[in-house]
Amino acid sequence: MTNEVTRESKRRWDLFAEDYAKRTSKFGDLHKEVLLTPTILSLLEGVEGQKILDAGCGEGYFSRLLAEKGAYVTAVDFSARMLDIARERTSNDAAIDYRQADLEDLNELESSLFDQVMSNMAIQDVVHLDAVLGEVHRVLKPGGTFIFSILHPCFVTPESGWHRDEQGNGLHWKTDHYFEEGQFEQRFGTKEKVFGFHRTLTTYINALFSTGFTLETLIEPAPSEENLEKYPDFKEDLRAPDFMILKVRKAY
Ligand SMILES: C[S@@+](CC[C@H](N)C(=O)[O-])C[C@H]1O[C@@H](n2cnc3c(N)ncnc32)[C@H](O)[C@@H]1O
Q1: Does any ligand 1 atom lie closer than 6 A to the CB of residue 58?
Q2: % of the chain beyond a pLDDT of 90
Q3: 159 falls in which pLDDT band (50, 70, 90)?
Q4: 243: Cβ below 6 Å to ligand 1?
Q5: 90-123 pLDDT, tens per residue?
Q6: pLDDT class for 252, splitting at 50, 70, 90?
Q7: Which of 71, 185, 216, 235 is most buried, by CB atoms within 10 Å?
Q8: Is the Cβ atom of 13 under 6 angstroms away from ligand 1?
Q9: Residue 251: which of 217, 211, 219 has the closest Cα?
Q10: Averaged pLDDT for residues 80-92
């Protein structure tokens, strides 16, 4: 299902891979370390001995965490450059099979292969959501779970952001154009711009249901007291959530 938009998205991720990887340490960047990585790990149903797919693995930090805990990991990304970096950062004896593929077409992976599929901050970047969910569903064993984090679709819209006073204090977080679904450019504070796709919460939930998943858990991660003491700037994350994490299950 590769089309012009997918090709351009992939080209941009290749260009951005180096910069993106620079901001990723063992537990991800700071937002991932505080809000996403521990939440996703807590939702997995065991790790040791599990066959897990990391969908949209990027430079592979999550795959390495899973492999360290004893999982057999298949890590897929469509960016060749991301995968080069992932392989450079992975020791030869780690049980990680890195593969270059579009999540819309995982034909190299047989059906009902994985106990669990996880995806960290990649699903809002895919061009055709239904195709990706269909492939994830196909490669999961019956009863298997799909756990994924995305930008919170209700608060992070193409024109969202802080409205600040002259001192830089956040007056309020503004969102707009919620119902205008489609492609937008994510900047990550550098000149490179990668594609994201804004979809409403309704679109996400209905796409999951029509694929055949049932929804088990939804988490809007917020910083704990302990996190706030260590990283006071995270108090802004209590005003509006940036992320949403869902756990869904394929029927037995
Ligand atoms: C925001 S990064 C997240 C990477 C990694 N999961 C992490 O948490 O660091 C999104 C990743 O999804 C990949 N990606 C986007 N669309 C994809 C697609 N259709 N198929 C495979 N990979 C895709 C990009 O190349 C990029 O590496």
Answers
A1: yes
A2: 87
A3: confident
A4: no
A5: 999 899 999 999 999 999 999 999 999 999 999 9
A6: confident
A7: 71
A8: yes
A9: 211
A10: 96
Phi, psi of 66 (to 5 degrees): -65, -40
Closest residue CA from atom 25 of ligand 1: 79
Q: How far apart are CA 12 and CA 7, in angstroms?
A: 9
Q: Where are the alpha helices (DSSP H) in the chain?
A: 4-22, 30-31, 37-43, 61-68, 80-88, 129-139, 201-211, 225-230
Q: Which atom of ligand 1 is nearest to the CA of 132?
A: 19
The token pair at 196 is: 């994201």
Which residue CA neighbors atom 27 of ligand 1 most closely? Answer: 58
Determine the pLDDT at residue 72.
98
Angle between helix axes 129-139 and 201-211 (nearest 10 degrees) is 40
Q: Where are the domains of the chain?
A: 4-152+211-250
Flag whether pLDDT at 211 surpasses 80.
Answer: yes
4-152+211-250 homologous superfamily: Vaccinia Virus protein VP39 (3.40.50.150)
Q: Note the Cα 86 to chain centre separation in Å.
A: 16
How much distance in Å is there from the Cα of 33 to the middle of ligand 1?
A: 17
pLDDT at residue 186, rounded to an integer: 83
